[in-house]
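## retry 2 of 3
previous attempt timed out at serialization; input unchanged, resubmitting
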Amino acid sequence: MQYQLSIRKVNESDLSVNRPFMPEDEDYEMYLSAFIEDVQKLECVTELITNGNGLVIAIKNESDFEQLHTAVKHLLNNSFHDKLVSDSGFSKVA
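## retry succeeded, writing output
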């Protein structure tokens, strides 16, 4: 099973009380690489392919999607909250 996730830089419209500052543009690739590395380490992930700002993530079983979703949400809401944004969540790749 494969799912696509689109990740982008934080922009001005994302700023709020909880995210008051934009990260430096030159740091984006470093944050994206660290996020990709963390996702690749998840037990349910069998393969991760980058496609620009999109990630195609393969998982072992359909039943692993909830684990993947929860883990990625945790990463984006905690470690990468002020560094990266997911545009639209996961979409299933045919």
